[in-house]
Design brief:
The chain has 7 helices and 4 strands, in the order βααβααβαβαα. With 157 residues, it is of the alpha/beta class. The chain has a single domain, classed as 3-Layer(aba) Sandwich (Rossmann fold). A 4-stranded parallel beta sheet has the order 2-1-3-4, sandwiched between helices. It is globular, with a radius of gyration of 14 Å. The two termini are 15 Å apart.
Length: 157
Amino acid sequence: MKILFVCTGNTCRSAMAEAAAKGLIARQPEQYKTFQVMSAGVMCAGPSPASPQAVAVAAQNGCDLSQFTAKQITEEMVSQADYVFTMTRSHKRMLDGAVPQYSGKIFLLTAYAAGDPSAPDIPDPFGGSAEEYARCFAVLQENIETVFEKIKKFDAE
């Protein structure tokens, strides 16, 4: 099961989502051993590390982003993923427009988790306080746990 998380620059939200997902897989390998996760940005400015605040918040949650490198999303990444989870409706619209043949596997993370298309976007903490990053990480972690359970249940059926 290949899961791709997408945000704008791949230095905050999607990087933290990847770290949170890898942390969940590491904590529950028997449940999620078939899950592979990665992340990318729709407007990545080139290879760069995760933001210092994202690295710090991930570490506080037992996850490691210290060696992370941001990546620009490619059609190949989308084609190889079983699920693509975006942080905002805008990201989803961009991908739906760029690779319409894959729109059936592109979802707003919160909407998929809640089973509600009106679920809120995940706010970008870029340039924000440590508290904003911590809140963002907590929201990501909660949504990812729910999404993983849904995928596992759906996959078992």
